[in-house]
Automatic annotation (TrEMBL):
Bias type Basic and acidic residues, positions: 509-518
InterPro entries: Cell_wall_metabolism_enzyme (IPR050570), Dup_hybrid_motif (IPR011055), M23ase_b-sheet_dom (IPR016047)
Source organism: Tsuneonella aeria
Alphabetical keyword list: Signal
Domain of life from the UniProt record: Bacteria
Protein name: Peptidoglycan DD-metalloendopeptidase family protein
Chain segments annotated as transmembrane: none
One Pfam family named in its UniProt record: Peptidase_M23
Region (Disordered): 504-524
Recorded GO MF terms: metalloendopeptidase activity
Lineage of origin: Bacteria, Pseudomonadati, Pseudomonadota, Alphaproteobacteria, Sphingomonadales
Length: 524
């Protein structure tokens, strides 16, 4: 103990107690400040300074929050520096020399003392012209826009009303005006006007009326007359063949196939062959598109006519467009297949097949079909081909149409406002058979759709239809003949330039009924 006290005494003599006291007081001040800060934070947290104005609208708390918002907004606006635009420093320094250079190049009326190319303004020696001289002729291009008439287009270009009416009659005698495509450019040449204030007379007018016909109107002896200029056109289809490579799309585009034809090709071939793994780089694609080339150099590609793909010289798929609806058929005469359940209306399903509580009767009952949300009067289509078994009132189903389909299937469409078919009528897939309503036991406009197999109700979503078009007899023979002739077209033959026919062998313009009757186009 004695030794310990001696050590403490010696340490107290060496280290002063004042720093320890300062540290103790500083720590006490920090603890006191933390206590005050925590109490202030807790008190401020309990005060609702910024209530949510989207809740409790109209209450005292909401009005207090509104007052806070208005006050803070007014405080911010009061100390806002201003709304005047800030002017940026000029990009270049403008001194007197630069300003004089700008003045020498500016455009300003001489009457206002403007400079023009370092020339001074007018003086007393300047004589004012009575009238500015007019150009003897004006050459311009007018464009026929969508929804406009040929005559209004000419008058906007400066052609007088009398000349515009004469041109319309001349062009109408050559072809219907509504066959002139929108966007067609018309070259117009106007002559010197007879007197001031009168429209300029039309000297010449020419335009491409059709791909195979150009029209030119000229004035001879003060009379406008029309000249038809038939253009030789070749309709040999364009055939493109090449290797599929790493990318079938890029290979076809690289070979010169039009984008629309490539898209149609991939869509048709993709329905028969897996394009991801079923096409090898060594396979050969073969497509034929309708194509027209004129002797004047214009070319126009049309729709896809034939789509094929070969492997080792043997065809894997051969499809040709056939019929008025443009459907593609295989070489065997089998057309496109349509699969999947066609929804009778485009609305969403509000009630599925199975047990549910009936919305009107109020008890659990099996729902023998599917309900589709639809507006009153919305068309309802047949899900597949069939015959109308009945069309009329059907108790709680209201106005209903029942269709018989292949495979002992039946479909029924209930609560219709009106029906578009009658019993015994044949219907096609997608044909309108009625319109949405709310007849029978219904709480509002919707479609109740049922399906039966052998008289037993089944879930409509469990059935898919597959429809294929088939050619037979004379139609199949004609189809195969056209396909054989189409495949004789040489690849790239249509890309050669078409030489204009000599005057003696030039193809005449197609004969019209008015020409057969001996009626000539009058010269006006």
């Amino acid at each position: 103990m004695a030794g310990g006290r001696a050590a403490a005494l010696i340490h107290a003599q060496i280290v002063s107690e004042e720093p320890a006291v300062v540290r103790h007081r500083a720590r006490a001040l920090v603890d006191r400040w933390d206590s005050v800060r925590w109490r202030a934070e807790a008190r401020l947290a309990s005060v609702d300074l910024a209530p949510d104005l989207a809740q409790g609208i109209g209450t005292r708390r909401w009005f207090r929050g509104l007052g806070t918002f208005v006050g803070l907004s007014a405080f911010s606006l009061a100390f806002w520096p201003g709304f005047a635009p800030l002017e940026a420093a000029p990009a270049t320094r403008v001194d007197d020399a630069v300003r004089d250079e700008f003045r020498s190049q500016m455009i300003m009326p001489l009457a206002l003392g403007g400079d023009a190319g370092r020339q001074m303004g007018p003086t007393a020696a300047v004589t004012t012209l009575k009238a500015a001289p007019e150009r003897p002729t004006l050459q311009l291009v007018a464009t026929l826009v969508q929804g406009d008439t040929f005559g209004r287009m000419l008058q906007r270009a400066g052609v007088g009303a009398t000349d515009a009416a004469r041109v319309e009659r001349l062009v109408t005698a050559a072809m219907p005006l509504d066959e002139i495509a929108a966007g067609t450019p018309v070259d117009v040449t106007l002559g010197r006007r007879a007197a001031a204030g009168q429209p300029r007379p039309l000297d010449t007018l020419s335009f491409r009326a059709r791909f195979d016909l150009a029209l030119e109107i000229g004035r001879e002896g003060g009379v406008l007359s029309l000249e038809r200029k038939p253009i030789r056109v070749d309709t040999t289809p364009l055939r493109i063949r090449g290797l599929a490579g790493e990318s079938l799309y890029r290979s076809m585009r690289g070979a010169g196939a039009p984008p629309s034809a490539v898209q149609a090709y991939l869509r048709q071939i993709g329905e028969r062959i897996d394009l991801e793994g079923g096409v090898q780089p060594t396979d050969t694609f073969d497509l034929i598109v309708s194509y027209r080339r004129a002797a004047t150099g214009e070319r126009k590609a049309g729709e896809l006519l034939y789509a094929g793909i070969e492997r080792n010289g043997k065809p894997r798929a051969q499809l040709m467009r056939w019929g008025s609806d443009g459907q593609f058929f295989e070489a065997s005469g089998v057309g496109e297949q349509t699969s999947g359940l066609l929804q009778p209306v485009p609305g969403r399903i509000t009630s599925s097949f199975g047990m549910r509580r009936h919305p009107i009767l109020g008890y659990m009952r099996r729902h023998a079909g599917m309900d589709f949300k639809a507006a009153h009067g919305q068309p309802i289509v047949a899900v597949t081909d069939g015959y109308v078994a009945s069309a009329g009132r059907a108790g709680g189903c209201g106005n209903a149409v029942r269709l018989n389909h292949a495979g002992a299937l039946q479909t029924r469409y209930c609560h219709l406002s009106s029906m578009a078919v009658s019993a015994g009528q044949a219907v096609r897939r997608g044909q309108v058979i009625g319109y949405v309503g709310s007849t029978g036991l219904s709480t509002g406009p919707h479609l109740h759709y049922e399906m039966y197999r052998n008289g037993q109700a089944i879930n409509p979503s469990s059935v898919s239809f597959v429809t294929r078009a088939l050619l037979s007899g004379e139609s199949l023979e004609r189809f195969r003949g056209v396909l054989a002739r189409l495949k004789t077209v040489e690849a790239g033959a249509a890309l050669a330039d078409l030489a204009p026919a000599p005057a003696a062998a030039r193809a005449p313009e197609p004969t019209r009924e008015i020409d057969r009757a001996g009626v000539r186009t009058p010269a006006i």
